[in-house]
Amino acid sequence: MNEMALKYGCNPNQKPSRVFMANGADLPIEVLNGRPGYINLLDAFNGWQLVRELKIATGLPSATSFKHVSPAGAAVGKPLSETEAKIYFVDDLGELSPIACAYARARGADRMSSYGDFVALSDTCDAITATMLKREVSDGIIAPGYTDDALEILKSKRKGTYNVIKIDPDYVPEPIETKQVFGITFEQGRNELAINNDLLANIVTDNKDIPDDKKIDLLISLITLKYTQSNSVCYVKDGQAIGIGAGQQSRIHCTRLAGSKADNWWMRQNPKVMGLKFVDGIGRPDRDNTIDVYMSDEYEDVLRDGVWQTLFKEKPEPLTREEKKEWLAKNTDVALGSDAFFPFGDNIERAYKSGVKYIAEPGGSIRDDHVIMTCNKYNMAMAFTGIRLFHH
Fold this sequence. Notes:
By secondary structure, this protein is α/β, with parallel strands linked by helices. 35% of the residues lie in helices and 20% in strands.
């Protein structure tokens, strides 16, 4: 099949819409179920590239949760702790496969943003991963293969309309890519830059120690950024992105946004949050939204009389500022990647508040000396990669 018609483009008024291979070759995908749309396929193809590169760089099964052409989460298949299994709401599924662990982490990083995601897996989707997906609000999945049981489970999702795409893992795109904007054709070489440990060799801070597992975290951050709308930064811990700030015009706003998401991820592990007693039958989206509001400064919105009774079996005590500050201080050894240089040390100051100890960024700012000085103040280790990772 050389082309596939789509229902419409980015919006319902944008017709006709299709995807096709300009070189006359067959499409490298097979739609096993559903009818993916324009944005679905943008998420699918960007997500597939991300997990493919994560697998190459780390050797671990990888997954990403994509929304609006940027990842909401990305992770490799490290085993989950009991706490992680509980905050990702998969503690009832028993032993998870590595690819299931990867998706649980990718989805669990920012569950609010992952609502209605498109999933990409580096490895064959198995039944346990499909079971996990079936109970989440999700638009579709792309993977190199599916077990028979997994495919049966996924085909039953969304009344049989869930998008299931199989991609040829051996497909290699042409080295030159084009797109049109305002009727004008743009052309450029594909970003085939290999992201590996070589990019982390130029450590410019007084602290030169970046352990191997933190190098993996930095590689995850950089590969995630390669497929995130710029400006972007990515906080990573223990093999998973915990905060991604995409598409911000100012880098400090990007660092703050991603940092706040990383803080929320950590706050969800606070005993008060984990101990919330929800009413029976509450939906996953309602529960996720309630947790997010409870942890915020707007907590009264879910604790007000007449409201909390619809959400909780018993009214929880709010988290105080002091409790939040004390808990957030326990998050340490976080890695941070940036798709372009940090222009000022204020980004480092903000990153430090979210436990960042290891940084990878291109370097090249006229204020590099101030950024390095700020890292040294907090004994951070920072590598200048020398490469920019803008993505549009």
